[in-house]
Amino acid sequence: MLGGGARAAKPSFVSYISPEEIHIKEPIEKEVNPRLLPGELLLCEASTVYKYMQEDGSNRGTYGKLVCTNFKISFLDDDSASDDNEPEFKNKIVGENDITLQCVDQIYGVYDEKKKLLTGQLRKYPERLIIYCKDLRVFNFCLRYTKEEEVKRIVSGIVHHSQTPKLLKRLFLFSYASAAPNNTDGRNQTVMFDTLEDWRDELERTKGNVKYKTVITNEGYRVSEKLPLYFVVPICISEESILKYEGRGIPIWCWSCHNGAALLKMSAFPKEQDDSTSQMQKAFLDGRVLKKAIEVAECLERQHTNVLLIEETATDLCCVISSLVQVMMDSYSRTKSGFQSLIQKEWVIGGHSFLDRCNHLHKSEKEEAPVFLLLLNCVWQLVQQYPPAFEFTETYLTVLSDSLYVPVFSTFFFNSQHQRDTSTSGESLKTQSGPFRFLTVWDWSVQFDPKAQAFLNNPFYAEKPKPDKSQRKTARFKHQRQLSLPLTQAKPSTKRGFFREETDHLIKNILGRRIGKFINSSDEPPNNLREFYDSWHSKPVDYHGLLLPRIDGPEIKVWAQRYLRWIPEAQLHGGGTIAITAKILDLMEEVQSLQVKIEEEHSQAVSGDVHSVTTPRNSARLSSLFPFALLQRQSVKPALPTSTWKDLEDEDDLVRRDDEFLDLSGDMS
């Protein structure tokens, strides 16, 4: 019996083998070098780095080389050297073990089992490195077996190039554009809205050219560097008014409804900003955004009332609401080219500060906010509620969100059209192969081959039927002249024009209210709005008409493919939406195959030559988060009690027997 002050006996068994040495893949023998893009330079590297498997909670992993370039952080093992077993959905620019420098969120070092955030100069170097990414991946590297000098170089290099502030022209975007060949057509069918003709065509498409006009007042950016070169305003607004107020307080046209009502936005003067407005903006975000978009849709669709969105710069929440409303009300915005054109119009040319909101230069975390991801999340809600209404898939939205952090495309790496235009000027940016030109993200061939691009297209999209030319509408809708905030009764001005000296008080009154009336703090919608909402949902859905999202309780879901794709426990192997889609596609392929056989047998019966045709089938078991959830290449089981595994293994045959195998040999398109 031990006394009160006696020490506990030491364990009789001591293991001198670290957890990493129990389940390891041997260090690679052959030299593996990173695949570098044009303009990409290798900055530092370290060998004998142990990468823990992020799919597994144990210490299993593999040895390899960790490198840092001016574009990405990359881990290279023996699988990196071969093209065998490549995933069906492969990104040609960013691999599964690549992290672009802009995608790095935070870096932690582990010192004696304690985590410490790594920033700036390091006095002591960690034994483990943990990298948290903005796409929610987590990379865990053990540096215990790496040479000390290599540890210093790789850790310092990664922290410096991914976490410290940098100049705009130091981004890899400029290096790539200078070195890459200019042989891609980035436009495709996407309207870029960088010409006067693009805006005039959009006005004509939406029948908004009756009361609105395109203006060239900002050519040379003489009015404002935040405004685009060309934009649309009400006909009553003069060029002098736009110049006088330097673009602020100008109602800028976004879109016109079929009944003539229009959606407009307006930037307020800075002096009107106050603490109460910031609180209202926070309440707006907390209210998740779909409810407000329904309010706007009700004003436009039922009340035939113009809606004016007011924000300090009109480039954040205005972009979210205006885009969401157009997706809900305009079926063209639900096609792939239409949605891309919408992003160009409202966000890229509209002046959303992608550079600051994504903090690509690591200058200020105060300006960082996932505003664009908020839009994609809302659009995803509509996509999963009304799949036949959209030409694109949730996979398209996921890769679009990932493209925010790929500095090969200029789409999401500038704050305004002015900043982009001035960045491409100058003798130093001329290339040997021709004029300096950035790539646009809308050229999907840069990232994916045709087979992978098929995953971006919805095979169940209900394409809009062509209109019957014999039936022409003769009725013309009257356009509303009143510019009002939603759900308010504002009297129209008796004066013609918004910006004359005698009507300055009207401007101040509108700006004083700002978005206060628009951002209703109440969670419960008004009675007339609820009536509009319930009435619409009681009728059959027209996939080419107005779409109202279901916003009650369980109807709002988590975007699992984006937020949970790296978590093994969230994967349902052989199930989920992708399994249903694949089975339907398999059935469609069988029907098409039968049709071909019938036609062939008919023709062969006439000619007298009869033979059978067999179709090879390549089956695989999919994950519910496919195509992003990786098919595990090693046979690894999660850390579960032995008894649990025994029960599962006893039922293994039953599981395999009930599973359906899905044919992936057919074209998803």
TrEMBL record:
<dbReference type="Pfam" id="PF06602">
    <property type="entry name" value="Myotub-related"/>
</dbReference>
<dbReference type="InterPro" id="IPR030564">
    <property type="entry name" value="Myotubularin"/>
</dbReference>
<keyword id="KW-0703">Sarcoplasmic reticulum</keyword>
<dbReference type="GO" id="GO:0016529">
    <property type="term" value="C:sarcoplasmic reticulum"/>
</dbReference>
<dbReference type="GO" id="GO:0030017">
    <property type="term" value="C:sarcomere"/>
</dbReference>
<keyword id="KW-0963">Cytoplasm</keyword>
<dbReference type="InterPro" id="IPR029021">
    <property type="entry name" value="Prot-tyrosine_phosphatase-like"/>
</dbReference>
<dbReference type="Pfam" id="PF12578">
    <property type="entry name" value="3-PAP"/>
</dbReference>
<dbReference type="GO" id="GO:0016020">
    <property type="term" value="C:membrane"/>
</dbReference>
<dbReference type="GO" id="GO:0046856">
    <property type="term" value="P:phosphatidylinositol dephosphorylation"/>
</dbReference>
<feature type="domain" description="Myotubularin phosphatase">
    <location>
        <begin position="289"/>
        <end position="563"/>
    </location>
</feature>
<comment type="similarity">
    <text>Belongs to the protein-tyrosine phosphatase family. Non-receptor class myotubularin subfamily.</text>
</comment>
<dbReference type="InterPro" id="IPR022587">
    <property type="entry name" value="MTMR12-like_C"/>
</dbReference>
<dbReference type="InterPro" id="IPR010569">
    <property type="entry name" value="Myotubularin-like_Pase_dom"/>
</dbReference>
<dbReference type="InterPro" id="IPR011993">
    <property type="entry name" value="PH-like_dom_sf"/>
</dbReference>
<protein>
    <recommendedName>
        <fullName>Myotubularin-related protein 12</fullName>
    </recommendedName>
</protein>
